[in-house]
Amino acid sequence: MDPMGSRQRKSYTPKYRQDAAYLVIDTGRTIAEVAREIGLSEQLLGRWVAKERAAMDDPPPAIDADERAELERLRREVTELRIDREFLKKAAAFFASEQSNPPRRSL
Predict the structure, then answer these.
(1) Element holding 47 (H helix, E strand)
(2) How far is CA 80 from CA 31, 89, 104, 107, in A?
(3) How far apart are CA 17 and CA 40, in angstroms?
(4) Within 10 Å of residue 48's Cβ, how many Cβ atoms?
């Protein structure tokens, strides 16, 4: 560790910064989601996104109420599907373990 107690900062290429920002801009995902996924702080990614949006010729269009409602519905559906998937994974593991250890029958 540095005797002065300072940490060495990570350095990111301009291309990496732009690509990370466009993961938010192009997909409509939240900064928090993308930041977690790629291992950055929300504040850092937020600055990169703001910079890219400012550099764009025309700002991203705001979504209307119908699109917002559809987005919220789809997010709820994704959450439900993830819960279902986890349940099915556990059920599959349970049944697989039962098949590998069949109960003994007494005569």
Answers:
(1) helix 42-55
(2) 22, 14, 38, 46
(3) 11
(4) 24
Residues 54-65 as b/e (b if ≥16 CB within 10 A, e otherwise) read: eeeeeeeeeeee
Helices (H) and strands (E) in the chain, counts: 4, 0
User: Amino acid identity, residue 98?
Assistant: E
Distance of CA 17 to the CA centre of its chain: 17
Q: Which helix (H) or strand (E) holds 54?
A: helix 42-55
Cβ neighbour number for residue 12 with a 10 Å cutoff:
14
Taking Cα atoms as reference points, which of 45, 43, 48, 26 lies closest to residue 34? 45
Distance CA 40, CA 36 (A): 6
Q: How far apart are the C-alpha atoms of 26 and 17, rounded to whole Å?
A: 14
Decide if pLDDT at 8 tops 70: yes
The pLDDT confidence band at residue 59, using thresholds 50, 70 and 90, is low
Instruction: Report the chain's mean pLDDT, rounded to a whole number.
Output: 87
